[in-house]
Amino acid sequence: MTDESENPEMETHVQPSSLAGIASAAEGKKTPGSSALGVGLEARNIHAWFGDKLALRDVSLDFWAGTVTALIGPSGCGKSTFIRTLNRMHEFIPTAAMAGEVLLNGTDIYAPGVDVTQIRLKVGMVFQKPNPFPSMTIAENVLAGLKLANLKVENKDDLLQECLERAGLWNEVKDRLNAHGGSLSGGQQQRLCIARSLAVRPQVLLMDEPCSALDPGSTLKVEETISHLSSSMTIIIVTHNMQQAARVSDYTAFFLSDGGPGELVEVGHTNEIFSRPKDSRTENYVTGRFG
Amino acid sequence: MSTVTIPKPQKPWKATPRQRIETGSILLISVLLAVLLVAVSPLKGKLGYVGAFVVIYLIIDYVVVRLNHGKSAGVDAFFRGLVTMAIGVAVLPIISILVSVVVRGYKGLHLSLFTTDMQNAAFTDENLAAGGLKHAIIGSILIVATALVISLPIGILTAIYMTEIRGKFARPIKFLVQSMSGVPSIVAGLFILAAIVYPLTKFYSSFEGSLALAILMIPTIARTAEEVLLLIPQDLRESGVALGGTQWRTVQQIVLPAARSGLVTALILGVARVAGETAPVVLLTGGGDGTQWNIFKGPMGTLPTYIWKAFGSGTEASIARAWTGILVLLVIVLFLFGLARFLGGRKVK
Questions:
Q1: Is A269 helix (H, G, I), strand (E, B) or coil?
Q2: Domain assignment of residue A232, yes or no
Q3: HEC readout, A142-210
Q4: pLDDT tens digits, A30-56
Q5: Which of B239, B253, B346 to probe the A interface (max A CBs under 10 A)?
Q6: Which residues have CB under 8 Å from B30's CB, separation 6+?
Q7: Touching check for A145 and chain B: CB below 8 Å?
Q8: In sequence order, what DSSP letters do the residues of A10-68 get, joined into one string?
Q9: Is A257 helix (H, G, I), strand (E, B) or coil?
């Protein structure tokens, strides 16, 4: 994998086992399997359609527990579609269809009989726009997942504090937990949404451009939150901000569409993708010469 | 450190005295010209004055603004004028109705109105203090409340089917609901008469009236609720589902609470649709004169049937009673709407 001349097919798409090779080549970085959190999430040959239109072609990617993977690429290249297949939110769109497997701890989440609500509890999601539930207070927002999924916890106050602390919001809101979620600033709202996803204790957190609606200061706070969280869970973040990808992620995957369906062009350690990309299209994109 | 003297807050965009004089004179000239026009033309009456004034004002305003500020400013002024006039046209009849009702209805107001019914009194009794509205107020509230209890859940569930579940039948149901909102009330009354009263109960009761009113209310509530639910951002639903909620729990805990004040509007519009309905109520409840607390038994009068009967009696005293009935109906309806707004608008603690 380190020798690109031996891998001409790398240019079209990456084989499922690609990450293992990359990791062994880069000593000192977080290595797949080094943590005790499990094997994480494996996407195998994912295709996705909207109606008759193929939006995503043959994407295989492994996400190792305890790492942050950034998905980059221009708009319309299927990044968001891809992460929505990872927690079965893709099927929320009426015309959607998909093919392929997503293995969570070795089990296909699309297998017949799988309880989709259980999958979404294990694979949480943070959306592009901060969207605290408008009828709820800050505390109710954080604990909303428990009510939604009908979960029982021993001590709600402890969980509330823990989630807000992990999301880096506790100090700012601890005195007004009963205020409305909408009374917070945009950046605080987004961290509230992160705290909300943490309350059901997901193993994987999907973030779909979580900072695109935030100012630089709030973005920094969310990124700090991501860094803190990454030690305890698998994080997959879609971002248009390449500096952000470089700052927060261990691995980066570059998606591209040439007008047709989106494809995975290249995946690797973040510093390699940004300093020595193997594919010229990746290089053009990360150096800003995209076109 | 330099000190800055804070200037007094000003509103430089407000009209200057000169501009106000200009606006005022356009208005004045329009009024004068309108009077002149009515005097020399076949236009007659209040309507003639108003019509002439509107047309003349719009023309003068347009011309003056156009000469001073150019074409697009003139068009802007013209449409601003037109919209303002349209509001006047829409609001005038409402004010006129309210004023007439108060002026003609207050004579019949007395305390016994709320403590007695028409069991032992005649609509034609010259003494307006004889008899009262107790039966009609109780009847109206009972019938409308029963209809609401039936139609609110059905209407909101229909809306949920159309917006949340979006099942195969969502489109035909939407079409049906839309056509149902045009059903004349007498048809709803006749339907209940033919489907329930004749074959089943063979007896009048206010519950049957409520059923007919529910037929009228369901489409109104369902359509309004549907529109309100469509306004809830898709993001919120997705967040709920992404947190491991089932669809029903997401609807129940996130979508409906977020739509609460809009759903109260749906309720209000539903009540407004039927509160004044007379025909199906007369048809199905018998429109009684005595106080009736049992919705499953015997005739029950409502405010609209009281008004209908009083007008039908045709004497001066009975017509005065009818106006009082209208006044009371209006006040009760306004009070209930205010209450619903207050309860629905309150923040969840």
A1: strand
A2: yes
A3: HCHHHHHHCCCCCCHHHHHHHHHHHCCCHHHHCCCCCCEHHHCCHHHHHHHHHHHHHCCCCCEEEEECC
A4: 444 444 456 689 999 999 999 999 999
A5: B239
A6: B53, B56, B57, B60, B61
A7: yes
A8: GGT---TTHHHHHHHHSTTS--TT-SSS---EEEEEEEEEETTEEEEEEEEEEE-TT-E
A9: strand
- What span, in angstroms and rounded, lies between the C-alpha atoms of A230 and A205? 9
DSSP B347: P
Tally of domains in chain B: 2
pTM: 0.79
With an 8 Å Cβ cutoff, are B242 and A131 in contact? no
Q: Is B348 on the interface with A (CB under 8 A)?
A: yes
pLDDT tens-place string over residues B95-134:
999 999 999 998 888 888 888 888 888 888 888 888 888 9
Note the pLDDT tens digit of each residue in B214-245: 999 999 999 999 999 999 999 999 999 999 99
B185 and B271 within one domain:
yes
Tens of pLDDT, residue by residue over A56-102, are 999 999 998 889 999 999 988 999 999 999 999 999 888 999 999 99
Which of B237, B244, B249 faces A120 most closely, judged by CB atoms? B244
Residue A42 has, within 13 A of its CA and on its CB side, a CA count of 18
Give yes or no for residue A133 having a pLDDT over 90: yes
**Same structural domain, B155 and B299:** yes
Does any domain span residue A160? no
Tokens of B99: 């004023």
User: Do the beta carbons of residue B98 and residue B293 sit within 8 Å?
Assistant: no
Q: What is the Cβ-side half-sphere exposure of residue B151, based on CA atoms within 13 angstroms?
A: 34
User: Structure tokens of A180?
Assistant: 């409305």
Task: Give the domain range for residue B139.
Answer: 134-345
